[in-house]
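User: Fold this one for me? It's Apolipoprotein B.
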Amino acid sequence: GSANVPETSSVQKVIFRYDENRVEVEVKSDLSSEITKLFPETEVYQRRLQKVIDEILDQRVAKTDMKVRHIVSKAIEAVNIWLDKVSGENPKSKRSIPELTLPSLPEKLFLKYDGLFRYQFNKNKLTLTIPLPLGGKTSEDLNIPASITIPEIYHPEIMGEGPSITFTVPTFTIPRDFELSLPLIGVAEVSAKVNSNFYNWEGSVSGGNDTIDVPSFIGKYKVAAESPI
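Assistant: Here's what I get for Apolipoprotein B.
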């Protein structure tokens, strides 16, 4: 579906695919807005907000010579050091510490989202043999008669007479067991991707039964984020 309002457009799509091997559901969303035309005084509001933020950051912390700005900067620096250690990046290539200012708004804001769910069917099956009660017994073993006879019926009030009727009961044998086939778990995958002026994020998770010749199970994940600001 799609929607259009002044200076703004939005498009959403849902795509469903299915065959004998897999099932997929894909979701797409595209939103864009010419923010400067929609809100002509955006820069004025941004300057006012930046002024309020600066006033808060320039306040001195009680019983110290430090300002709030210094503490926030040190906290961001500590987080960056921790992220470098977790990601195993070269310590010489340090992350830059962003200035504590609001980013300028572009003329056009956009937000794109792509999501995908995929399930790969497993063609192998698990067969269970379930023994049945009285398995192997025949109708003769269970003393079931070969025929059933309904006797002649006579009713004097209606002056009617019904002849006797004989029903033949077919012979049968109860099977010894019942085979139940269950499909094995396949491989499921979920992924998502978000792109915007200020932040890009991508992640995926997959896992399941990847057995071909020998039992094999897999589990994977991936997360990546980037901010161009």
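One thing worth pointing out: Residues 68-87 form the longest helix (20 residues).
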